[in-house]
Write a structure and sequence with these properties.
The protein is an alpha/beta fold and 410 residues long. The protein is built from 16 helices and twelve strands. It has helices at residues 6-17, 21-24, 29-40, 47-62, 68-79, 129-141, 160-168, 189-194, 209-216, 221-234, 254-260, 289-300, 363-368, 373-385, 394-399, 405-408; strands at 96-100, 146-150, 175-180, 199-203, 238-245, 267-272, 304-305, 314-318, 325-329, 342-345, 350-352, 360-362. A twelve-stranded mixed sheet has the order 7-8-9-6-5-4-3-2-1-10-11-12.
């Protein structure tokens, strides 16, 4: 492709852009565009090709139709490693489980926690450590090998180390990770690592202490940075910093976050602002992946795309001379539903097969009513089979009912 002529490169791009929608869900549109642009030897593709690509991409995101046969062929390598109960109607195998440990948080970020707060689930209705351990064993026996513990804020659970130990010690689980705001994390990192924690995501939306207090309605900026530094020192397999980018609040800090990766082995992930109950989402506040990337490349030059696996949620890039890397999570403008391998269990034990779906089923109630592991796996399988091909567009998501992010789990 790199040796193609300008005319041939244009044909490549136009051909990709004209691909039928059913196939488009399983094509990495961005990668195809980059290949063609690279062959052209210019920073921007021909206008006609780009217009067609945009129209085709929008059509793919707007549809929920996927040919199961196309899906099955695309996902065969991964579904071979999971039980049939974890394979949905479109051939997507699910080997990644996210479990929220609590609905409580010690910060009040506006995109996650509504201004009026949320009605918390009673403590005795939340999953216990024993129930979490049992659920993980059921999923791991069916092929799940990655487990992420979220919240709320998971460090507010006093038994977090015990939960990590149970999860990491489950046969079949090879990665145990935590997503946290990092405020109280540093003092627990040694114990968490000793109990099997392998990967860490820290949520941080600003590098300005005063802005941190404004955005989170709490103090603790210095403690978050200390947690990131200590995590790097301890040598976790992966340390990521999650940054939700909002226009007029922190979009002026994109380059400052990129600069963090110069000397630190961290992955900074820029996340498009997503709509959830009570977070006052609007398109005016959202900064798109295309805009974020363009701003960064204007300052740093072209980013180099990593060869990501199909199920990767982020578009990952490296920068010359940087120890770390940057990524973009593009749920709103360039969704990745075609390779989704994730399932979620909320703190109250409800299984949610899609972050943006409002269909849930209670595994807690099944366990407490005496269901066997096989019974619970059948409940899980039925829910997975009902998973849709793709979530709705961002405007539709903003209008539909869903939980607040803090009650789903980050």
């Amino acid at each position: 492709r790199r040796d193609a002529t300008r005319r041939d490169a244009t044909r490549i791009l136009v051909a990709v852009a004209r691909a039928r929608v059913r196939r488009y869900v399983f094509v990495d549109v961005e990668r195809a565009r980059e290949d063609a642009v690279s062959a052209l030897g210019t920073k921007s593709a021909p206008r006609r090709a780009m217009e067609e690509l945009t129209r085709a991409g929008e059509g793919a995101r707007a549809t929920s139709r996927i040919d199961p046969r196309v899906a099955a062929r695309a996902m065969t390598s991964r579904t071979a490693n999971v039980a049939p109960e974890l394979v949905d109607a479109f051939g997507r195998g699910h080997n990644y489980l996210r479990i929220s440990l609590t609905e409580k948080c010690n910060l009040r970020c506006g995109y996650c926690m509504p201004e009026d707060g949320v009605d918390l689930t009673a403590k005795d209705e939340l999953l216990t450590a024993d129930e979490i351990g049992r659920v993980v064993k059921i999923f791991a026996a069916a092929g799940v090998d990655k487990v992420r513990l979220t919240g709320g804020e998971p460090t507010l659970r006093k038994d977090l180390e015990d939960v990590v130990r149970r999860v990491s010690g489950t046969p079949g689980v090879r990665e145990t990770s935590v997503t946290t705001n990092g405020v109280t994390l540093a003092k627990r990192l040694d114990a968490l690592r000793a109990n099997g924690l392998t990967r860490l995501n820290v949520s941080l939306d600003t590098l300005v202490p005063a802005k941190f207090e404004f955005m989170t309605r709490r103090k603790g900026h210095d403690r978050v940075l200390a947690s990131v530094d200590k995590a790097c020192e301890l040598g976790f397999q992966s340390v990521k910093v999650n940054c939700v980018v909002m226009r007029g609040q922190n979009d002026d800090e994109l380059l400052d976050f990129v600069a963090l990766t110069k000397d630190k082995p961290i992955n900074v992930r820029f996340i498009e602002y997503m709509p959830f109950d009570g977070n006052k989402w609007s398109t005016k506040k959202m900064v798109s992946y295309a805009e974020m990337r363009a701003r960064i490349e204007e300052a740093y030059g072209a980013l180099t795309r990593v060869d990501d696996p199909r199920e990767e949620v982020a578009k990952n890039f490296t920068l010359p001379g940087h120890k770390g890397s940057v990524s973009f999570i593009t749920s709103m403008t360039n969704s990745f539903c075609g390779g989704c391998n994730r399932l979620r269990i909320m703190a109250d034990g409800n299984l949610k097969v899609c972050l943006f779906g409002n269909s849930e089923v209670s595994l807690r109630d099944a366990m407490r009513s005496g269901a066997s592991d096989d019974d619970i796996l059948r409940v899980i399988g039925a829910a997975v089979k009902r998973k849709k091909a793709a979530h709705a567009g961002m405007h539709e998501l903003a209008a539909q009912d869903n939980r607040a992010m803090i009650k789903i789990g980050g």
